[in-house]
C-alpha cells in the first residue's frame, strides 16, 4: 500500500482499507464466514485473520474426513465380498428393482428372479497398488457445497478399457492347466465366452461338468441362466452355431430391420454399425451401403434422403432378412475364392465343396483405394484379387486356396503393372499373387456369382486383357511428340491461386496473338487439374485441324526442381552445408555443366566463355587496348554461340526483343520511387547484350530490357583518335 497509495497501513484509515481488500480477495467460503461477524470484531484485522485460518483448517480436515469415508466404504465392500465364514442360509436380500418387479407381476419373494452375476464383477474387487493409484486420480465436486476435491480409486475402476483383455488373458492361462475328460472335443474361449464342441451328447456332458468344477475351484463364478447346456444349436458371439454352419439370429435381424429411417448423421452411423457386423452374410454389402455413406459425406447434420439412398436402405434390410447360412471353415477341405470387381469395389465369395455344390463360408466386399480406382479395368481386377486373398486368409489360416478370376492376373501384372503401379505396390501384389504356395490362380469364364456357387461353368467369354488395355489406353496415332510442319501453334495453361482467403481457378487456350478460349473453374480445382482441363479444351477445339500444342513448360520446371534438390542433397552430404548455403552452389553447378545436346553450358551460352574463378580485379578503362580488343572478340563469340544454339534448340524468341547494341547509352528505371527525384538514372554505356537483357559497368546484375530506354544523342561525341593518347570530340549541330 505504501508503494501504490499514500495510505499508511498503521493508521485507522489504512487499516479499514486493508480489511476491505482482504474481504474482497478471499475465497468464497472464507468470505461468507467473515461477512457474518457482527459488532466491533467485524473491523478487527486480527479477529478476521483468526477466523479465516479456522475456516481454512476445517476445510482441509473435511477433505481428510472424506478420504477416510471413501476408504472405509471400499474396505466394507471388500469385507462383504470376501467375509469369513459360510454364507447365511435363506433367500437373497431383495433390491429395489426386485421389489418393484414383485409388486408389478405379483410374485412372491422366493419366486423373484435372482440378481444377475457376471464374470465382469471381478473387475471391481481387484485392489490397486499404492503406486498405481495415482494413475486413476479424478476430480469430484460435492453436490451440496460445490467444493471440488481430488480422489483416487483403491480398486480397479469401472470402465478401464483393458479390463476385459486382462481378464481374458488370465482365464486363458488358467484353462491351460485344465485336463479334459476322455473323448473327442474342442474348447474355444473368447474373453469370458466359452464354447465346448463334441461329437456325442455324453462326451459334452462330461466335458461341461469337468470344466464347471475346474472354474469353481479356481474362484470363477458362472451364470446359470446364460449357460446353454448340451444343445445342437447355440448362440455364440452373437450368431447361431449349428451343425457345420452359422446363421444370424432372428432376433438380431428383426431388431435391425425394425429400425426407423435415420434422420441425423449419428443415427445413420449407428445403423451402419449394426449392419456392418452382418456384412459377411450379405454378398454385395459395400455396393448397397455406398449411397448411404454418400449422405454422411455431405457434411450437414440432418440427412437429405435421395431416391438412391432410400432404395439402398430398403434393399439392405431385405438382404439382411434373407441372409443365408454360412458354412463353418473346414480345414480338411480346400477353399475356393471367386473374385471380381464392380464400381470400384472388390467383391468375393469364399466357399468350400458340399456335395455337387459349393457352400459359402464368407461374402467379402471391400472398397478399392483411390489410386487403384484410376487404373484400367483389368488392373483393377488384379487389385481386387489381392484384397480378397488378404481377407480370405483370415478364414483359411494358410490352407490351400484356389482363386477363380476371369482375368489373366499374372500376365497383366507382369506386362502392365510397371506402367501404373508404384514399385512398392508392385512387389506387394507379386508376393500375394505369385510367390505364395497356398494360392493357386485359375482363369475361368464364370462371371456370375450364382454360377460359381451352383458349380456350373457357364458359357465361354472371349476376353484378352493385354489387347483390351492396349486398345483402350494406348496413345492416338495422330498425336506426335515432335512439332508438325505448317501447323498452327496453340498454348494452354491453367492456374489456381488464393485472393483474400478465397481460391480462384481458371484456364486459357491462346495463340501468340489472340485468346481462343478462357474461363473460370470451380473453386476446388487445383492448378494441375486446371492445366489438364485446358489441354482437353484445346484438343476439343482443334478437332479437324493440325496444331502444335504447347503446355505449361512441358514439365521443364518440375524437372529442374528435381535436379536442384538432387544437387542440394549431394552438397549437404559432401560439405555438410544447410540448404540455404548449398542452394547457390547447386545453381552454379547446374549453370556451368555442359549440356549433352549443345555441348555448351548455360554460362558459356550466356557469357561466351567457360566459367572460371576470377583472380583479382582488372582495371576497366574505355581507352585500354587490351580490354577493348577482348570486348570486341567476346561480342563476336557471343554472336556465333547464339547462332549455334539457335540451330540446336527451338526457341520462342527468334531474335533480340530490343534494339540496344553494345556501346549505346541508355537510361535505367529505378525500382525505388523517390519524391521530387527522377525515376530514370543515367545515361550508362551498354557493355553486353542478350535477347532480353543488357549489362552495364555500374551494376553487377543483368538488366531486363523493359527497364531501359535509349538515351538521346548528346551535343558532344567522343571517339578515339589515331593515337592512343588522342581523343576526338565532335559537336552535333542537329
Structural notes for this entry:
The chain is an alpha+beta fold and 734 residues long. Among the domains are: 12-74, no CATH class; 260-472, no CATH class; 488-551, Nucleotidyltransferase, domain 5 (2-Layer Sandwich), CATH 3.30.420; 652-731, Roll (SH3 type barrels). It is built from 22 helices and 24 strands. It has a 5-stranded mixed beta sheet, sandwiched between helices. A hairpin with a 2-residue loop joins strand 3 (185-190) and strand 4. The model has no long low-confidence stretch (mean pLDDT 80).
The unreliable regions are none
**Sheet/helix structural class:** alpha+beta
Span between termini? 90 Å
Residues in helix, %: 25-40%
What's the rounded overall pLDDT mean? 80
Binned strand content: 15-25%
Largest sheet, in brief, is: 5 strands, mixed
Whole-angstrom Rg: 44 Å
Helix count, per DSSP?
22
- Broad shape: flat
Query: Which strand order do you get reading across the main beta sheet?
Result: 11-10-9-12-13
Amino acid at each position: 500500500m505504501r508503494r501504490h497509495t499514500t495510505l499508511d497501513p498503521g493508521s485507522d484509515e489504512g487499516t479499514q482499507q486493508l480489511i476491505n481488500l482482504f474481504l474482497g480477495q478471499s475465497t468464497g467460503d472464507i468470505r461468507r464466514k467473515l461477512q457474518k461477524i457482527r459488532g466491533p470484531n467485524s473491523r478487527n484485522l486480527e479477529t478476521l485473520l483468526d477466523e479465516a485460518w479456522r475456516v481454512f483448517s476445517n476445510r482441509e480436515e473435511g477433505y481428510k474426513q472424506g478420504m477416510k469415508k471413501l476408504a472405509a466404504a471400499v474396505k466394507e465392500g471388500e469385507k462383504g465380498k470376501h467375509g469369513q465364514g459360510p454364507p447365511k442360509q435363506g433367500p437373497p436380500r431383495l433390491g429395489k428393482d426386485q421389489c418393484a418387479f414383485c409388486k408389478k407381476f405379483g410374485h412372491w419373494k422366493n419366486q423373484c428372479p435372482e440378481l444377475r452375476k457376471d464374470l465382469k464383477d471381478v473387475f471391481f474387487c481387484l485392489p490397486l497398488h499404492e503406486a498405481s493409484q495415482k494413475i486413476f486420480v479424478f476430480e469430484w465436486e460435492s453436490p451440496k457445497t460445490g467444493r471440488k476435491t481430488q480422489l483416487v480409486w483403491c480398486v480397479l475402476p469401472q470402465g478401464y478399457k483393458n479390463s476385459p483383455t486382462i481378464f481374458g488373458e488370465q482365464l486363458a492361462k488358467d484353462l491351460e492347466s485344465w485336463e479334459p475328460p476322455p473323448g473327442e472335443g474342442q474348447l474355444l474361449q473368447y474373453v469370458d465366452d466359452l464354447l465346448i464342441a463334441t461329437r456325442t451328447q455324453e462326451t459334452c456332458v462330461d466335458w461341461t461338468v469337468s470344466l464347471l468344477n475346474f472354474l469353481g475351484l479356481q474362484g470363477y463364478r458362472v451364470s446359470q441362466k446364460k449357460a446353454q447346456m448340451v444343445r445342437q444349436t447355440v448362440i455364440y458371439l452373437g450368431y447361431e452355431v449349428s451343425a457345420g454352419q452359422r446363421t444370424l439370429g432372428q432376433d438380431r435381424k428383426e431388431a435391425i430391420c425394425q429400425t426407423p429411417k435415420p434422420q441425423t448423421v449419428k443415427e445413420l452411423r449407428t445403423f451402419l454399425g449394426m449392419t456392418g457386423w452382418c456384412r459377411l452374410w450379405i454378398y454385395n454389402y459395400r455396393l448397397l451401403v455406398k449411397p448411404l455413406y454418400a449422405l454422411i459425406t455431405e457434411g450437414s447434420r440432418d440427412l437429405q434422403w435421395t431416391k438412391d439412398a432410400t432404395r439402398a436402405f430398403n434393399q439392405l434390410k431385405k438382404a439382411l432378412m434373407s441372409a443365408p447360412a454360412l458354412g463353418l471353415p473346414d480345414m480338411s477341405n480346400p477353399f475356393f475364392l471367386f473374385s471380381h470387381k464392380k464400381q470400384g469395389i472388390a467383391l468375393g465369395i469364399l466357399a468350400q465343396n458340399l456335395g455337387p455344390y459349393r457352400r459359402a463360408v464368407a461374402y467379402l466386399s471391400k472398397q478399392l483405394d483411390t489410386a487403384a480406382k484410376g487404373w484400367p479395368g483389368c488392373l483393377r481386377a488384379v487389385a481386387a484379387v489381392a484384397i480378397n486373398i488378404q481377407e480370405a486368409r483370415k478364414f483359411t489360416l494358410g490352407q490351400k486356396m484356389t482363386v477363380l478370376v476371369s482375368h489373366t492376373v499374372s500376365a497383366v501384372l507382369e506386362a502392365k503393372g510397371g506402367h501404373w503401379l508404384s514399385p512398392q505396390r508392385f512387389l506387394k501384389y507379386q508376393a500375394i499373387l505369385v510367390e505364395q504356395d497356398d494360392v493357386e490362380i485359375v482363369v475361368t469364364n464364370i462371371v456370375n456369382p450364382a454360377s460359381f456357387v451352383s458349380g456350373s461353368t457357364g458359357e465361354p467369354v472371349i476376353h484378352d486383357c493385354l489387347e483390351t488395355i492396349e486398345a483402350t489406353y494406348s496413345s492416338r496415332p495422330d498425336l506426335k511428340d515432335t512439332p508438325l510442319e505448317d501447323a498452327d501453334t496453340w498454348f494452354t495453361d491453367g492456374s489456381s491461386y488464393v485472393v483474400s482467403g478465397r481460391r480462384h481457378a481458371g484456364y486459357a487456350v491462346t495463340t501468340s496473338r489472340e485468346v481462343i478460349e478462357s474461363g473460370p473453374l470451380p473453386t476446388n480445382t487445383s492448378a494441375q487439374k486446371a492445366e489438364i482441363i485446358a489441354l482437353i479444351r484445346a484438343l476439343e477445339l482443334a478437332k479437324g485441324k493440325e496444331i502444335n500444342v504447347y503446355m505449361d513448360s512441358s514439365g521443364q520446371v518440375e524437372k529442374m526442381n528435381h535436379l536442384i534438390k538432387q544437387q542440394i542433397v549431394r552438397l549437404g552430404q559432401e560439405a555438410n552445408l544447410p540448404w540455404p548455403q548449398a542452394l547457390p552452389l547447386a545453381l552454379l553447378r547446374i549453370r556451368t555443366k555442359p549440356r549433352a545436346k549443345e555441348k555448351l553450358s548455360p554460362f558459356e551460352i550466356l557469357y561466351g566463355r567457360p566459367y572460371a574463378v576470377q583472380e583479382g580485379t582488372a582495371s576497366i578503362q574505355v581507352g585500354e587496348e587490351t580490354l577493348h580488343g577482348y570486348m570486341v572478340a567476346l561480342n563476336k563469340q557471343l554472336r556465333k554461340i547464339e547462332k549455334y544454339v539457335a540451330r540446336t534448340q527451338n526457341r520462342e524468341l527468334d531474335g533480340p526483343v530490343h534494339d540496344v547494341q553494345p556501346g549505346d547509352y541508355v537510361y535505367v528505371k529505378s525500382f525505388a520511387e523517390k519524391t521530387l527525384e527522377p525515376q530514370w538514372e543515367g545515361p550508362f554505356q551498354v557493355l553486353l547484350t542478350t535477347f532480353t537483357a543488357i549489362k552495364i559497368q555500374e551494376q553487377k546484375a543483368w538488366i531486363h530490357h523493359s527497364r531501359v530506354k535509349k538515351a538521346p544523342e548528346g551535343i558532344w561525341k567522343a571517339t578515339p583518335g589515331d593515337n592512343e593518347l588522342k581523343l576526338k570530340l565532335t559537336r552535333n549541330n542537329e
